[in-house]
From TrEMBL:
Origin species: Amycolatopsis rifamycinica
Domain (VOC): residue spans on this chain: 3-121
Segments traversing the membrane: none
Source lineage: Bacteria, Bacillati, Actinomycetota, Actinomycetes, Pseudonocardiales
Top-rank taxon, per record: Bacteria
PROSITE patterns: VOC
Annotated protein name in UniProt: Glyoxalase
Amino acid sequence: MRIMHQVVTFDAADLAAESRFWAGVLGGEVDDDGDWHMVLVDGAPRIGVQLAPDHVPPEWPDGPTKQQIHLDLWVEDFAEAHEQVMALGATVLKPAAGTTSGDDFQVYADPAGHPFCLCWLVPR
């Protein structure tokens, strides 16, 4: 079996907001096909967004609607990445622990409420 592309797909009630968010985070563009959007980066599919009018955002971490999937995005410059995702519509769910060595992460929600993490190595 040869897999041509690996794509994570998010459900969202607001396709435009969700697909614009991930296109902005990944530096891509949105291919709008009605009830389905594909975020393309350098012409290759990276993230899908499908219309789910009754989508209920997960309530991270322990709400009645649990998270079902999340992305860990490892970044070189956390401050820059944080500003970018916030400008695109993310919300902080859990601030970074402030680890002084190793790695650290901060938990966010995208516009549809899906959790994701910005992760980075803490400089020594």
